[in-house]
Design brief:
- The chain has about 100 residues and is mainly α.
- It has one domain.
- Helix content is about 60%, strand content about 0%.
- It contains four helices and no strands.
- Helix 1 packs across helix 3 and helix 3 packs across helix 4.
- It is globular, with a radius of gyration of 13 Å.
């Protein structure tokens, strides 16, 4: 079962990704196909959760007990690789 610390870490990761993409001049339209500013919340909903459900269709919430640390790591690895390849944005996963 994932810890509160790990949950805080992936929320922080989404916030850091949002800042990097925004600082890089990317709009949500480019990343999400919507013309709005990139935020932690839309990174979380539009990217993190999409990777999560693509990898683990049976998991519908980050609070699901089945969303274990190894699954969190797999979501991060896939998301980080895709963002690095497409936008040149790669951020180490926070440990807090």
């Amino acid at each position: 079962m994932k810890s509160r610390k790990q949950e805080n870490a992936y929320h922080k990761y989404c916030r850091l990704i949002a800042k990097e993409l925004d600082d890089g001049g990317y709009s949500v339209q480019e990343v999400f196909t919507l013309p709005v500013t990139i935020t932690k919340d839309n990174v979380f909903e539009g990217i993190w959760k999409r990777f999560m459900t693509a990898l683990y269709p049976e998991i519908t919430s980050t609070t699901d007990p089945e969303f274990t640390p190894d699954k969190v790591a797999a979501v991060y690895e896939n998301m980080n690789r895709a963002l690095a390849e497409k936008y040149g944005v790669s951020i180490p996963f926070p440990h807090e």
